[in-house]
Amino acid sequence: MKIGIPREIKAQEGRVALLPRHIKTLIEAGHTVYLEKDAGLLSAASNEDYVTAGAILVDTAAELFEQATLIVKVKEILEPEFALLRADHIIFTNIHAALDAEQLDALLTAKCLAISAENTHKFGSPNCPLAGEVGAFEAIRMTMAQNGGTGRHFMSHFGEPAAKAVVIGLGNVGQGSLRTLVPFGIRTVALDIYEGARKSIAMQYHNAPVTVGDVSELEDHIYDADMIINCVLWPKHRKDHLIPRSMLKKLKRGACIVDVSCDTAGAIETSRATSWADPEYTVDGIRHFVVDNIPGSVPVTASAGYGEAILPKILAIADKGAEQAIREDEWLAKGLTCIGGELILEEAGIYQNKPFTPLCDWVKRSV
C-alpha cells in the first residue's frame, strides 16, 4: 500500500506520525512510504534519516495526498487539507470528531474511510501520560507570582507549606501529573471515582504528601488549592460539570485550572480549547490553561511513543486493507469514524445530531 506521512500544520505542533525506524518496518513489509519534506524535523528526524529508511520525499501536502492512499497523521484534518481528500483515502489520525463538525463534514463529503486514532488504544494513548506530566509542569509555572499565580513555592520552606494541587482523575493522564507534582514536594490531592485507582495511588505514594479520595470530595479540597488539574475525559453528551462556573468565585485568589482533558464545557464548565500560541484565558478571575495538543511541546518523545503505538495498526491496514483489518481488530473498529459518506462513530452522531450506523451493524453488513 502507498502510505503518506504529511507535515503537521496545526499551530505549535511538532510531532510526526511515524519516525524513520517505523518507516523502515513498513518498507520491509513491502509498502511504499511518502513523507512530506521536513515533517520530522521538530521530532529530531531529518529528511535524510527518512530517505535512509527508504521513504520517498515530496515537497507539498498536495503531492503527498495525491500519491498516497493511507494518510497517517497525529492531529486532525484541518481546513487547508479538506480539498486534498479523496474517496479512496484511508485517514488514520486523532480526529476528535464529536467536537469538530466542520472536519467531520469534510470527511463525510469526501467519502473517505476515516479512523480516529484516539479510540484505538486498548491501554490509552502513549501521549496521555506526557500530557499529564507537561500539564502539571504548566500548572506549577502558573502558580508563580509573576505569572499571576498565588506565589506559593512548590516546596515547603520557613514554616510556609508547599503549594497545593488537586488532580481530578487517576488514569494515565492523572498518573502523569502526579509524577511531576510529587517529586517537587507539592501537597497533592488525588481524586477518582474508582476504588481500584485510588488504592493503587495510595499504595504508590504512601510516603509522599498525597491525599487520595473520591471525586465526591472535590469541594472539600479545591477552595484552598493553588492549582487544579483536570484529567477526566468527560462524555460529550453530558450537560453537568464537576466544576461549574459558580465555583470559580470561591477559589483562592491566583489559583489556576489546567484542563488536560480539554473537553469544551465538559468536566470544567468554563473550558474551551486554546493553543500554545495563546494558551491561557481568565474567567471570573481564574486563569485557565486548556491547550489541546500539550504533547506537541515535547515532540521528540511524543512522536516516539505515538509511532510505536500505531505502527502495528498501520501495518495491519496496509497488509490486509482497512476494512478487513477493522473486522479483525476490535480496537481498530472502535476508531472507525466514517466510510463512504456514512457516519459510524456513535459519539459524533449523538453529539452533532447526525444520523449514524452503529458499528455492530456496519460490521455485520461488511462481512
UniProtKB/TrEMBL annotation:
NAD(+) binds at residues 214, 260. Pathway: Amino-acid biosynthesis; L-lysine biosynthesis via AAA pathway; L-lysine from L-alpha-aminoadipate (fungal route): step 3/3. The keyword Amino-acid biosynthesis applies. SUPFAM superfamilies: Formate/glycerate dehydrogenase catalytic domain-like (SSF52283), NAD(P)-binding Rossmann-fold domains (SSF51735). One of its GO terms (cellular component) is plasma membrane. It holds the Pfam family AlaDh_PNT_C. GO terms for molecular function: alanine dehydrogenase activity; saccharopine dehydrogenase (NAD+, L-lysine-forming) activity. It catalyses: L-saccharopine + NAD(+) + H2O = L-lysine + 2-oxoglutarate + NADH + H(+). Keywords: Amino-acid biosynthesis, Disulfide bond, NAD, Oxidoreductase. Residues 143-290 form the Alanine dehydrogenase/pyridine nucleotide transhydrogenase NAD(H)-binding domain. InterPro entries: AlaDH/PNT_N, AlaDH/PNT_NAD(H)-bd, Lys1, NAD(P)-bd_dom_sf. GO terms for biological process: alanine catabolic process; lysine biosynthetic process via aminoadipic acid. Residues 4-131 form the Alanine dehydrogenase/pyridine nucleotide transhydrogenase N-terminal domain. Its EC number is 1.5.1.7. Monomer. This is Saccharopine dehydrogenase [NAD(+), L-lysine-forming]. It comes from Desulfotalea psychrophila (strain LSv54 / DSM 12343).
